[in-house]
Design a protein that fits this description.
This protein is of the alpha/beta class. The chain has helices at 13-17, 78-92, 132-146, 202-210, 226-233, 246-258, 273-279, 302-319, 337-351; strands at 5-8, 22-24, 28-31, 39-43, 49-55, 61-68, 101-106, 115-120, 123-128, 151-156, 166-167, 175-180, 183-188, 216-220, 238-243, 266-270, 287-290, 324-330, 355-362, 380-386. The protein binds S-adenosylmethionine (SAM).
């Protein structure tokens, strides 16, 4: 096995020992010629092997590491990638009792940078983020088939990738139904957002059920009604789902129907959530969910994002009934938990109501946070009790 070699500057070795998964340009001392997507061997300046990665040749990240090791490994073999996929699967196995929709591979969270694989029953939906995945794609699909997934759908590929989009081999309907804690969800893997569903909120959605009995519930940024369905099952008096996407709301309505809930208790509003809150009356809702899209996509957008989170939460805190409960989230990886909490504090201080945190929430277990790679932590949620 003759892989191109990358040598690290002696003073930058610490990051490698700390097992972070990205190698930045400033850490490279010298290297063999390598193409974007090549699998490379990483060595310390003294020549000692320290790991393997994908050469991604970005402006700042040069290598995405998938193995920290001091022993030579055959990283081109099927066995190697099969083990990774099977290990990712074993972490999720106990979820199967709860659902047949889960994230099977969460990129760096599974030491597999550059690929996300979500499962919807017998279908796996694949998204790739660098060209290195092209090299191992056949191994990945073979392992998925070996695990029993019959239908493999490539939804998105990295720039410059040669992988074709769509079904890999066998075709199936692009709409399917999954179950999650005995609630059915219609998933549109082709037209839906992300791979079709926000799997990361599973246990947070379930928590809302406990607080919904006889409540008026508002689900802001509802997408296909995830939180709304749990609220209905929890015995909510009425549930309003608001999203700017009419097609997502259409699925939300269908989800209410296929679960046999009373559709007269559920209403959809295809509208901007900020505007909706401006027009909404005071003291109508007892429970409000705020789950916006990632407002901060880059470092530069953090101040604007903070303003966005602060504004929407202020509106919600002003309008909610006394004794009400707010489930508020941020899925921006750039907004760290402390900053999110500070932002919510600042909304509360401006509104001037007594607010206490009763739950602190995170992403579900199929989105594991890699302790060596803090960038894998992104979803933060606070459940607030408002007086
Ligand atoms: C993170 S997703 C919500 C996921 C949802 N809570 C669930 O559990 O499935 C964010 C949603 O916000 C919607 N959205 C984005 N900006 C919006 C806006 N200004 N007003 C209303 N909806 C918006 C998107 O269409 C998307 O469905």
């Amino acid at each position: 096995m003759n892989l191109p070699r990358i040598y690290i500057k002696a003073e930058k070795q610490k990051a490698l020992y700390n097992r972070h998964l990205w190698l930045f340009s400033g850490a490279i001392d010298r290297q063999d010629p390598a193409q974007n997507g090549d699998i490379v061997q990483i060595h310390l300046a003294n020549g000692k092997l320290i790991g393997y990665g994908f050469f991604v040749d970005g402006p700042s990240i040069k290598v995405k590491i998938f193995e920290h090791t001091q022993s030579a490994i055959d990283v081109l073999s099927y066995d190697y990638w099969r083990k990774k996929i099977f290990s990712a699967y074993s972490l999720r196995k106990n979820l199967l009792e709860i659902t047949n929709g889960f994230r099977l591979v969460y990129a760096e969270g599974d030491f597999l940078p550059g690929i996300i694989i979500d499962v919807y029953d017998k279908i796996t939906v694949i998204q790739t983020y660098h060209r290195g995945i092209d090299r191992i794609f056949d191994h990945i699909t073979k392992a998925l088939t070996e695990l029993g997934f019959e239908y493999l759908y490539v939804k998105k590929v990295a720039q410059g990738s040669q992988l074709p989009l769509g079904w890999v081999d066998k075709e199936a309907d692009t709409q399917t139904i999954i179950h999650e804690y005995d609630i059915k969800f219609l998933i549109d893997i082709e037209q839906g957002q992300k791979t079709g569903f926000y799997l990361d909120q599973r246990d947070n959605r379930r928590l809302i059920e406990r607080y919904s009995t006889d409540k008026n519930v508002l689900n802001l940024f509802s997408y296909t009604g995830g939180f709304s369905l749990y609220a209905l099952r929890g015995g909510a008096r009425l549930v309003h789902s608001v999203d700017q996407s009419a097609s997502a709301l259409d699925l939300a309505q269908k989800n209410v129907e296929i679960n046999g809930f009373d559709s007269s208790q559920h209403e959809i509003f295809a509208q901007d959530c900020f505007e909706f809150m401006d027009q909404s009356p005071d003291n109508l809702y007892d429970l409000i969910v705020v789950d916006p899209p990632a407002f901060a996509k880059s470092k530069q957008s953090i101040p604007n994002a903070v303003r966005g989170y602060k504004e929407i939460n202020k509106r919600v805190m002003r309008k909610i009934k006394q004794g009400g409960i707010i489930f508020t989230f941020s899925c921006s990886q750039r907004i760290e938990p402390q900053l999110f909490r500070k932002t919510i504090f600042s909304s509360a201080a401006d509104v001037g109501r007594n607010i206490r945190i009763i739950h602190q929430l995170s992403q579900d277990i199929d989105h594991p946070v890699n302790i060596f790679h803090p960038e894998t932590e992104y979803l933060k949620g606070l459940v607030l009790f408002v007086e």
